[in-house]
Specification:
about 500 residues; about 40% helix; alpha/beta; Beta-Lactamase; single chain; binds adenosine-5'-diphosphate; Rossmann fold; 14 helices; about 20% strand; Heat Shock Protein 90
């Protein structure tokens, strides 16, 4: 048949495997590329090789697919086109992944005479994708470990600065040096926190702790977090809040983090004397938060991918205050996790920028006023505290700090020694690092809890790991609290204060 010969000729010229079957699934033709893919020559018009010329067929997950369920067989049965990925195994055991596209062949009256299958070999592409995926996974693991390791040295630096601050009457140069270290360490802690969050986000381990919150309180906390940058930036900063409270079901810490990232950017990318606005309003069922500035603006090319990971502007055009290009990625993910959206607008370079967050608003008020116990901790306590950390600087500097505030301190650098010291010293509080030599912090906690005198100790885990699963592990090991490095010493002071009050009452 002339038409058929021409058709096969056409298939011969394709840069892909191609073969045809008749209506019964008997192979009527295959081209050279199909032969190469299969690694064998199926018998034409023979029931022994129905539907497909490959030796064995597998799905992408490796499960075997019988020939009478292959795409060709399905297309002939349903008389419809069919396509999808499939793995061909050749007689020599080599596997190739192909995209198969099957189309029924019809005569003039629409009767199905058979089908043609075109096979595109995507093995190399799949292989490249796997390499990229593995590399991405390794990168995320590396980021998580890097952030964790970078956190460790921060704690002793912070403690040392606080100790210097307490010295009082420092020479002006020393005072300046101390406050410079303090500022830079805080900045570094922020960058590391961002790194930790981005590692969590890329592995879907970021969790929200939602509650009914007043948006104004969240925005106040965001402003507070960014206040250093806002002050240093020297812009005129205006906050406009609605008269009526707007309530949201949100994680107040994470939402404040998102808004604070926008405020910090506005401060970073707006010149001295420029203006920055933070505006919150209710529009229908939505809370709308706008951060607007009169700064360097964003070019249209940049605007389209500004929320992507590691996107950063031309650093030469701005006062470089450093950044990893993940702040906006975090904003977007955090807002989306709250069921909201964030959008960026700018008329271009030097035209200022506007970021708008929209979130679903909750209907009613929170019901319960927030509880506060009123009295502020004095920052002083007189507890017996055992500090266990194999980072000697971290342990010693924290010891010095807690000694200054009136506590009796013992320090040890490994888990076994910690148990011995605890049995003599009978501490009321143990600050316990988790990653310790010999026996780790979880084991130390469990063993302490087994002692009669260990039941009432306040056990505090001090660690760089802060996921919910890490917190659950420390709870299970018998810890009362889980603090994340670098330790927030004012938080620790509050905690010790409450331990002391309940111990003495
Ligand atoms: P980073 O600020 O750490 O570089 P971000 O993800 O927060 O990372 O921001 C990405 C980029 O978007 C910045 O490098 C900057 O070029 C641009 N950008 C963000 N906010 C603003 C703003 N308010 N004005 C101008 N450019 C901005």
């Amino acid at each position: 048949m002339r038409g058929e010969t021409e058709f096969h000729h056409l298939l011969d010229t394709l840069p892909a495997g191609a073969y045809t079957c008749d209506a019964d699934g008997l192979i009527t033709y295959f081209n050279e590329h199909a032969l190469e893919l299969w690694g064998r020559a199926p018998k034409l018009n023979d029931p022994i090789d129905r539907f497909c010329g490959s030796f064995r067929l597998l799905a992408a997950d490796g499960t075997a697919i019988p020939h009478d369920q292959c795409w060709m067989a399905r297309a002939l049965k349903t008389r419809r086109e069919y396509d999808g990925e499939i793995v061909i195994e050749r007689p020599d055991g080599e596997r190739r992944t192909v995209l198969a596209h099957v189309n029924p062949i019809r005569d003039g009256s629409g009767e199905v005479l058979g089908a043609v299958n075109v096979l595109v070999d995507i093995t190399d592409r799949k292989h490249a994708e796997d390499i990229v995926k593995t590399a991405d996974r390794s990168k995320n693991e590396f980021l998580a470990i890097l952030a964790h390791e970078l956190r460790n040295p921060l704690a002793p630096i912070r403690n040392a600065v606080q100790i210097l601050n307490r010295e009082g009457a420092l020479a002006p140069e020393s005072q300046w040096a101390v406050s410079a270290i303090e500022r830079q360490v805080r900045q570094m802690a922020r960058l590391i926190d961002d790194l930790v969050d981005v590692a969590r986000i890329t592995s879907n381990r970021l969790e929200l702790r939602k509650e009914r919150v007043d948006l104004a309180a969240v925005l106040r906390s965001a402003v507070e977090t960014s206040s250093m940058l806002l002050k240093a930036g020297g812009q005129e900063f205006t906050v406009a809040l609605p008269e009526e409270s707007i309530y949201l079901d949100a994680d107040p810490v994470r939402l404040a983090q998102a808004v604070s990232n926008l405020l910090s950017n506005a401060a970073k990318y707006t010149e001295h004397g420029g203006r920055i606005w933070l505006i919150a309003e209710r529009r229908g069922g939505e809370a709308v938060i706008t951060v607007r500035d009169t700064g360097v603006g964003i070019s249209p090319a940049m605007l389209s991918h500004i929320f992507e990971m590691f996107t950063r502007g031309e650093q030469s055009q701005v006062r470089t205050l450093g950044g990893l290009g993940i702040g906006l990625t975090l904003v977007k993910r955090l807002v989306e996790m709250h069921g909201g959206t964030v959008a960026a607008e700018s008329a271009g370079q030097d035209m200022g920028s506007t970021f708008v967050i929209r979130l679903p608003a909750a209907e009613s008020s929170p019901g319960q006023p927030p509880t506060a116990d009123g009295s502020l901790p004095s920052g002083a306590s007189s507890l017996r505290v055992l500090i266990v950390d194999d980072n000697r600087d971290a342990a010693d500097s924290l010891a010095m700090l807690l000694r200054i505030t009136g506590n009796e301190i013992r320090t040890t650098y490994d888990g076994l020694e910690a148990l011995q010291v605890a049995s003599d010293f009978r501490p009321e509080v143990v600050l316990l690092d988790i990653g310790l030599p010999k026996i780790d912090g979880h084991e130390v906690a469990q063993r302490l809890r087994r002692e009669a005198w260990g039941q009432r100790i306040c056990l505090i885990a001090v660690t760089g790991w802060s996921d919910e699963s890490d917190r659950a592990r420390s709870r299970a090991a018998g810890f009362d609290h889980h603090l994340v490095k670098p330790l927030d010493t004012s938080h620790l002071a509050k905690l010790l204060d409450s331990v002391e009050r309940s111990a003495r009452s």
